[in-house]
Design a protein that fits this description.
The protein is mainly alpha-helical. Helix content is 77%, strand content 0%. The chain contains 8 helices and no strands. Helix 1 packs antiparallel against helix 3 and helix 6 packs antiparallel against helix 8. The longest helix is centred in the C-terminal third of the chain and has 39 residues. The two termini are 32 Å apart.
Amino acid sequence: MLFVYALRGLIVWPLPIGVAAWADSLTGYHLATPLPLERGSWPYVLVSASPAVALGVAVLIRLALALAPAAAADGLGPWAAVRRSWSLTWTRTGVPRVLVLALPLAAVAAGVLRLAVQAALSLRPLVRELLEPAPGNFFAAYYAGILAPVVVGVLVTAALVLPVACTAFAVLHDRLRPSVRRG
């Protein structure tokens, strides 16, 4: 199962990372950077928008591979599970079902994250007070206090949403899988 997750990550994330690095090399990080492309030109606009397009493509590929862990749980190897997920998702019934399942799960995850971060905001002063004397660095304690509610929110969201999402995608995998005739 771990190899399926690693393989899925290696398939999905090199595209947006590579495109973002390429776009930054052509458009520059700062306003004072000398650029190969002239600001305001159509090539500049297209290249500067390309990381967003690549991220959208990566999300679509990630959704197409969402059923791979369930396929691996059925006993398939990592490559076979990825191929099975791809073939089950890109069908006339697969795409709408994956989207109908993924969009509400994404909304629930965003809502839980927002609520968890809001509930954990009271940790900011506590973390700052605990860390300020230890390293003697006010700025490190300040930023640790800022990050503490976000870290708690991400962990709580993962603990609450991931089991539901994994179960939902496993059920969807079973429903999309072709039935085997015994005779």
